[in-house]
Amino acid sequence: MSLPAQALTKQKQFLGTVEARDEYGTWPVKIELLGDQFIISGRYTRLDTYLIETDRGYLVAVTNYNRCGHVPEDCTAYDIMDYVGIENKVDATTLAAAVRHLIAAGLAFRQQPSL
């Protein structure tokens, strides 16, 4: 599945809601697309995120946290904490739920080969 052409415009597009879960409960995670950036929000946080499929996994860059790193396709909150550097476990759980959903839906951008 590829992103529609209108996804690359600067209009916010609602992509859906998924559920994040930890040992204390569950909460909704809203996913929107703004240009080529995903806006992920849930439980009092917003994560402005780029998700790019690379040959080494998925590059997750959270611009409003100044953090980035590679995670596996089935990433967990601990992967997000370790590899991306998000320190808050609730934020990491929120981001992991959204990243897994976006990868499963085929919505991660593909890295362009360099010349």
Summarize the structure in words:
The protein is α+β, with helices and mostly antiparallel strands and 115 residues long. The protein has helices at residues 77-84, 89-104; strands at 12-22, 25-34, 37-41, 46-54, 57-62, 67-71, 109-110. Strands 1, 2, 3, 4, 5, 6 and 7 form a seven-stranded mixed sheet that branches. Helix 1 crosses helix 2 (89-104). The protein starts with 11 loop residues before the first strand and ends in a 5-residue tail after the last strand.
In short:
The chain is α+β, with helices and mostly antiparallel strands. Helices cover 21% and strands 42% of the residues. It has helices at residues 77-84, 89-104, and strands at residues 12-22, 25-34, 37-41, 46-54, 57-62, 67-71, 109-110.
Which structural traits does this protein have?
21% helix; alpha+beta; 115 residues; 2 helices; globular
Count every beta strand, where a strand is a DSSP E run of 2 or more residues.
Answer: 7
Number of helices: 2
| Main sheet specs | 7 strands, mixed
Oligomerization status of the protein chains: single chain
N-to-C order of helices and strands: EEEEEEHHE
Radius of gyration: 13 Å
Structural class: alpha+beta
Shape: globular
Sheet-strand content, in percent, reads 35-45%
Question: How does the SSE layout of this entry go?
Answer:
Blueprint: E1 12-22, E2 25-34, E3 37-41, E4 46-54, E5 57-62, E6 67-71, H1 77-84, H2 89-104, E7 109-110
Parallel strand pairs: 4-7
Antiparallel strand pairs: 1-2, 2-3, 3-4, 4-5, 5-6
